[in-house]
Amino acid sequence: MDDRWQNDPDPNDHPRARTPEVRFDSGGVPLLGVLHVPAGPGPHPVVVLLHGFPGNERNFDLAQALRRAGYAALVFHYRGSWGVGGDYSWSNVLADAARAVAVAPGLDPSLDPARVAVVGHSIGGFAALHTAARDASVRAVAALAAYDLGAVSQASQGVLDEARTMFAGDPLPLRGTSGDALYEEMRTHGAAWQLKNLAPRLAGRPVLLVAAAHDTVAWPELHYDPLAAAVDAEAATLPADHVFSDHRVALTRAVIQFLDRTL
Questions:
Q1: Residue 171 has pLDDT above 80, yes or no
Q2: Contacting residues for 4 by C-beta, under 8 A, at least 6 apart
Q3: 35 has which bridge partners?
Q4: Which residues is 237 bridged to in the sheet?
Q5: In whole angstroms, what is the distance from residue 24 CA to residue 162 CA?
């Protein structure tokens, strides 16, 4: 049923829902996460949830809803973020996302390695699309208000200056980096990181793109429209801000309906 994610599981379902803490290595650094395991014996499809920069919104409401809908959901922190060791960088975000997708099905015996999806918000959406483009085992990918580092790197000086200011303003939960370092890394990779260039590798794959009409961080004209025009994807725009503050239910419904169709 479409509304199953709005209801607690049947108390007769066994084993019961669980929320184990998990650890896995990426680049020699232990990453910390939480796995939301649904009730019932499985095998459960797996969704890796990727948070944005620096990670104030971690989409735990979405993880809980996914669990009620029958999906196991992994939420974790990248290297150098929120007390995790190592250094934070855009490249490490990409590497950690790829590693999480690779190890997620093995984190619990009830999970189905043949049904893995990745869903990301903001920088997490950027990483989700890159991960899916490089890993054919990803069955579906959803990018929510994805922040396109590649597009920003090719934009006007005013846009670049805004990005540099934003990167410098949020370093507190991060270690081993700085606003200048993140800015220079973005400029170094440039057009190679543009999301629209992933279109050939995402062709024929289930892709969901969700934009926020009132987004002042990843505004649709730069971050969403070129990608949506290039990639054959399910696309939606919600009248919300960057974190979909007043449209979390609509966002959750869109993601779960997409996964139900594709997984």
A1: no
A2: 68, 69, 70
A3: 74
A4: 211
A5: 35
Per-residue tokens: 251: 């966002």
Q: Which of 101, 127, 106, 129 is nearest to 116 (CA)?
A: 101
CB 183 within 8 A of CB 149: no
- Planar angle of CA 132, 138, 143, nearest 5 degrees: 50
Note the pTM of the prediction, 2 decimals: 0.96
Radius of gyration of the chain (CA): 17
Q: Residue 148's closest CA among 188, 197, 113?
A: 197
User: What confidence score (pLDDT) does residue 170 get?
Assistant: 67
CA angle, 235 then 51 then 66, to 5°: 65
| C-alpha dihedral (78, 83, 86, 90), degrees to nearest 10 | 40
C-beta separation of 126 from 195 below 8 A = yes
| Alpha-carbon span 59 to 74, nearest angstrom | 11
At 110-169, the pLDDT tens digits run 999 999 999 999 999 999 999 999 999 999 999 999 999 999 999 999 999 999 999 998
- 3-state secondary structure at position 110: coil
Q: Answer whether 235's CB lies under 8 Å from 258's CB.
A: no
